[in-house]
Amino acid sequence: MTNYIIRRLLLTIPTLIGIITITFLLMYVVPGDPIRILMGQRGDPATIAMIRKQMGLDDPLPVQYFRFLTNVLRGDFGRSYATNRPVLSEILTRFPATLKLALASMLVASVIGLSAGIISATRQYSLFDYSSMVVALMGVSAPVFWVGLLLMWVFGYTLGWLPISGYGNISYLILPAITLGIRPAAYIARMTRSSFLEVLRQDYIRTARAKGLPERRVIYIHAMRNTLITVVTILGMELASLLSGAVLTETIFAWPGIGRLSVDAIIKRDHPMVQGTVLFTAIIFIFANLIVDISYAFLDPRIRYE
Amino acid sequence: MKRFLGVLLVLSLLVALFQPIGMGATKKYGGVLRTAVTSDPPTLDPAQITDTTSDMVARQIFDGLVDYDENLKIVPVIAKNWSISKDGKVYTFNLRQGVKFHNGREVTAEDFVYSWKRVMDPATKSKRANFMEDIAKVEAPSKYVFRVTLKEPRGYFLQMLPYSCFWVVPKEEVEKLGPDFGSKPVGSGPFKFVSWTHDDKVILEANKDYFAGRPYVDRLEIRIIPDETVAIMEFEKGNLDWYENVPPSELDRLKSDPKWKDNIIEKPELGTYYIGMNCQKPPLNNKLVRKAISYAINREQIVKVIMRDSVMIATGILPPGIPGYSKRPPIPYDPEKAKRLLKQAGYPDGKGLPTLELAFNKSATHQRICEAIQSDLKKVGINVELVQMDWAQYLEKVDRGETQLFRLGWIADYPDADNFLWVLFNSKNWGPGGNGAYYKNPTVDELTDKAKIMVPGAARNSLYKRAEAIILDDAPWAPIYFYISRAIKQPYVMDFDFSGMGPFTAKLEKVWLDK
Fold first, then answer.
1. Closest CA–CA distance from residue A108 to any residue of chain B (Å)
2. Which residue from A247, A100, A111 is spatially nearest to A188, judged by alpha carbons?
3. Angle subtended at Cα B440 by Cα B436 and Cα B443, rounded to the nearest 5 degrees
4. Nearest chain A Cα to B420, which residue?
5. How far apart are CA B42 and CA A122, in angstroms?
6. What is the pLDDT of residues B50-109, one digit of tens each?
7. B212-257 pLDDT tens trace
8. Which of A33, A63, A189, B440 has the fewest Cβ atoms within 10 Å of its own Cβ atom?
């Protein structure tokens, strides 16, 4: 297992270099001069030329690329063109907010998704099954901004039970977490149900029941563990996706997360910030994948990494 | 006795008459003034500011020599008074004594020399270095005298000075903090920087040693709320004290609500929304086609239906409030005249006219406006294809003159006709400099060049009037509407006002809370 983890970690190096290279090239291919954008609508050509020269943006592409790569290897992601603040500190100051929101919405998603999925599967074709799957379908289909504004209007504006927007104590977290958790909850519910139904048809479940084991034990011990592989995969990927920011939810609820930072960087062609956020997201996905893969071995003893 | 009673009666009446006024006008100190902006300010370093959000926050922390009052008149700030040499090239500012930076050191003329030279220095990478290009020399002949020598006279020089790049910064703090000065600013303004949680809020506190007297409120809280509808919900719930980005969709409702209708402040803003036409690209190099396009646009419908009367129909290039503005009737919606002009240009009913491209940057409002224009032009036989792009790509295309028709809005950097007519129409400024229509008329060039170096006044304004009339006749732009700046405030927010530059210029140190 240790060897497997080391091998996987070593493999991340070429993956990350590949990602850095592709992002770097993409930012140069996409039209739009970052300095021109910062100037506003009127850009004095002489000033643009002066700033580009000062920032080394007129150097040949390979020179800029290797300068960037060597800086990144030294842990220096550079400074944002737009704010002149260090990219890494900009990302890290927003990460706690993103992490809080991601974990809270995953909690919402797991609790709702798993319970709805299991109950639906064990009571297949019941009223609960039909209604929860219809609700799940709505949850998958409903646009995030619409759900967010609706929740905000009802619980924040009309009833005044929760803050409308902003970043603060746990009360500020509830509405954005539900908004962001609804879609993965619906997805998890549907996947849990289908995966559970599949497991429940397996021979070993029939054997367990034939042995006279109580139904509760059959469901929660024998069936559940095998279903978890699918659910853990979804959870891992959803969590990774949430950790890279949720721009719509962050925008509606004025939540200071990484999503807004990344999108703003793309709009402003803020190359160092785009590269920083992309690399950060890539690292999160790589580690989420690794953790998911490792968890398989714990969930299913048949899976062994050599 | 009678006389005594009479005097007593008169005195009582006087007391009764004046007491309520006196009591009501007693300004209260204390409290927190809360507002919101739509994006995190990119920087609070005056040398780097190019946007109104950063400007709004930073102008509470910094001061310059002069500023605008609510009527856009130049008023002294750190400069007590000033004189201008006869040739219009040398400006001598006498500074107030005892103005202090937030670190306790006194502001002197040397600080202005340092601050301005810093903007000019390429190492600072200031995006507004070009604002200093008219300056030949800055010097401090004495501790409280700051002198500026211009290369050539500039009629608008004083009008430019309230712009952020001319504010004063303390050298020792800039050198200590380096590039982080923009995140932890130290100035001499009415409020001191306290904290900044990026994408969440900026907190400033009253500078109790401010030279003009401490601000009334103790603290300013500026939240960052990207969605305007959400900010309005926060405002109506009482979580914000004033807010400037009232979306047009909410305006009718708020204006008809008795709670808010008297608390919405509106002023003509120095800005014009227009459709630019690339004068070098056929068939738009034909003035008749450009004029036909302008007459074919139903501006009233755009203003009423799409913008819900949150703006005014444009009557020319210069918006009201700019010196040199001429009151004209709105450009008429006259499809028949447009057809006649097209026929005269050799395109009867639009026959032979290629499909024109109307480019705009992605936004629901711009899209609706451009769709309305597309439909108006279709009625006179002009086929238009809409092309939408993101802002970065769009700017590049307009700069390079690769568009035919394009939409843009120009908001003045400083309240002077030069900032419209020279910047946007002088042929020296083709492309990114401002003249995206690639317009060239030697008379307009001559008039705007000449007015640039004249002293402000009637003679200068008359040149701008002539230039504007020529431009309107040449039609490199189809002006659509003039902006209106607007802010909404809670009824207890007193003495809140702003200049025609926009609510971002509100003097928050004068605001007090009657609650």
1. 24
2. A111
3. 135
4. A42
5. 54
6. 899 999 999 999 999 999 998 889 999 999 999 999 999 999 999 999 999 999 999 999
7. 999 999 999 999 999 999 999 999 999 999 999 898 888 989 999 9
8. A63
Tell me which residue has tokens 């006869």. B86
Asked if B229 has any chain A CB less than 8 Å from its own CB, the reply is: yes
Taking one residue from A and the other from B, the number of pairs with CB-CB distance under 8 angstroms is: 149
Q: Are strands B242-243 and B74-76 parallel, antiparallel or unpaired?
A: unpaired
Contacting B residues, span 403-422, partner chain A, CB-CB under 8 Å: 408, 410, 413
Percent of chain A with pLDDT over 70: 99
CA atoms within 13 A on the CB side of A76: 8
- Residue B16 banded pLDDT, cuts 50, 70, 90: very low
Strands B90-95 and B79-84, sheet pairing: antiparallel
CA–CA separation, A73 vs B18, rounded Å?
Answer: 74
The Cα B360–Cα B387 span in angstroms is 6
ipTM, two decimals: 0.85
Flag if A83 and B182 touch (Cβ within 8 Å): yes
Name B482's bridge partners: B272, B312
Token pair recorded at residue B368:
């609706």
CB contact under 8 A, A264 and B39: yes
Is the pLDDT at B13 greater than 50? The verdict is no
Q: Which helix (H) or strand (E) holds B501?
A: none
For the stretch B408-462, pLDDT in tens is 999 999 999 999 999 999 999 998 888 999 999 999 999 999 999 998 889 999 9
Assess A39–B contact: CB distance below 8 Å, yes or no: yes
**H/E element holding A153?**
none
Chain A, 84-143: which have a CB under 8 Å from a chain B CB? 84-85, 90, 93-94, 97
Mutation target to probe the A interface, by most A beta carbons within 10 A, among B49, B54, B127 is B127
> Using CA atoms, how far apart are residues A43 and B432, in angstroms rounded to an integer?
5
pLDDT at A237: 82
Alpha-carbon span B337 to B345, nearest angstrom: 12
Buried b (16+ CB within 10 A) or exposed e, B380-401: bbbebeebebebbbbbbbbbeb
Q: Which amino acid is at B468?
A: E
